[in-house]
């Protein structure tokens, strides 16, 4: 089934996403 | 007395006295009082920061989301410690080269038209 | 001996950990369902054995993100034309995003008359999404649950084909 989700990464448990500093930025000069 | 608001802030921030401590993703705490016209200024001590961490500080209307950083929407204006970039509507522009870090005293001034 | 283990464990841990034990048993019972072409939409999950009512079938696993991060991602996915989002709301603060990382629960299709339902469990302080059977599911039946998408202006057609189909996913 992973063939139907390009570069999909299978997880055994929920993974807490670590946000980047620029997570909410649209542009950053 | 202007204080850090006890409820107008993101639940995951800890506030003791006038000190706000946050971790992981950006979240906002606002002051207990706002301003509506005239020229106002406040100062904050930037006490400490772990390596690779950054903060943003600035002015925000009460509509701005608490679960994001100041400057994320049209309701707030932020200044970032990394590179000293200023942010509004999530767009970062050059502002104060070099940025700021722990140990600095940060001042934020706002100038609102008196008669509008 | 799995049942023996379960009995011994439950007596020691008390029933509140039943969910904890059952969710960990899930991994051992993966054989319950399989991935195959779906009559509803693309691919889906099918029962490989008869499943009794209110059985835990699979956990919906992905990346746990904050709501605003999810809003930003939804816009980014739409900009990049990545199909229907695999974002599952846990509560007002967080969402499970299975678009790029997670398990094959993301392939479960929606139905307006589903044979399963999703439930948010809090296990050891962590909120997790589990899909349960709503009624007995026969071997070979497609697993479906109601996505309960929020109502939106630009509609996504529902292909579930159920008699009481609402016509749209959102």
Automatic annotation (TrEMBL), chain C:
<dbReference type="GO" id="GO:0003723">
    <property type="term" value="F:RNA binding"/>
</dbReference>
<protein>
    <recommendedName>
        <fullName>[histone H3]-lysine(4) N-trimethyltransferase</fullName>
        <ecNumber>2.1.1.354</ecNumber>
    </recommendedName>
</protein>
<feature type="domain" description="SET">
    <location>
        <begin position="31"/>
        <end position="148"/>
    </location>
</feature>
<feature type="domain" description="Post-SET">
    <location>
        <begin position="154"/>
        <end position="170"/>
    </location>
</feature>
<dbReference type="GO" id="GO:0140999">
    <property type="term" value="F:histone H3K4 trimethyltransferase activity"/>
</dbReference>
<dbReference type="GO" id="GO:0032259">
    <property type="term" value="P:methylation"/>
</dbReference>
<keyword id="KW-0539">Nucleus</keyword>
<dbReference type="GO" id="GO:0048188">
    <property type="term" value="C:Set1C/COMPASS complex"/>
</dbReference>
<keyword id="KW-0694">RNA-binding</keyword>
<keyword id="KW-0949">S-adenosyl-L-methionine</keyword>
<keyword id="KW-0156">Chromatin regulator</keyword>
<keyword id="KW-0808">Transferase</keyword>
<keyword id="KW-0489">Methyltransferase</keyword>
């Amino acid at each position: 089934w992973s063939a139907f989700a390009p570069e999909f990464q299978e997880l055994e448990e929920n993974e807490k996403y670590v946000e980047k500093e620029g997570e909410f930025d649209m542009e950053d000069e | 007395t202007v204080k850090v608001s006890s409820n107008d802030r993101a639940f995951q921030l800890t506030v003791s006295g006038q000190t706000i401590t946050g971790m992981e993703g950006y979240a906002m705490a606002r002051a207990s009082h706002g301003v509506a016209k005239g020229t106002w200024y406040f100062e904050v001590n930037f006490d400490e920061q772990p390596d690779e961490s950054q903060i943003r500080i600035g002015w925000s209307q009460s509509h701005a989301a608490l679960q994001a950083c100041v400057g994320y929407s049209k309701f707030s204006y932020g200044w970032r410690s990394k590179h000293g970039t200023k942010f509004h509507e999530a767009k970062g522009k050059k502002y104060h080269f070099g940025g700021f870090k722990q140990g600095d005293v940060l001042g934020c001034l706002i100038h609102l038209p008196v008669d509008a | 001996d799995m049942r023996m283990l379960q009995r011994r464990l439950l007596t020691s841990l008390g029933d509140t950990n039943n969910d904890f034990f059952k969710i960990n048993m899930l991994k051992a019972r993966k054989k319950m369902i399989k991935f195959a072409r779906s009559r509803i939409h693309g691919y889906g999950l099918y029962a490989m054995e008869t499943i009794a009512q209110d059985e835990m079938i699979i956990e919906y696993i992905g990346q746990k993100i904050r709501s605003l991060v999810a809003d930003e991602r939804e816009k980014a996915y739409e900009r990049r034309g990545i199909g229907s989002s695999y974002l599952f709301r846990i509560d007002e603060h967080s969402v499970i995003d299975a678009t790029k990382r997670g398990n094959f629960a993301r392939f479960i299709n929606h139905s307006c008359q589903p044979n399963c339902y999703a439930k948010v469990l809090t296990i050891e302080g962590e909120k997790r999404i589990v899909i349960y059977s709503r009624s007995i599911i026969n071997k070979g039946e497609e697993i479906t649950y109601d996505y309960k998408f929020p109502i939106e202006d630009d509609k996504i057609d529902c292909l579930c084909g159920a008699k009481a189909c609402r016509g749209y996913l959102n």
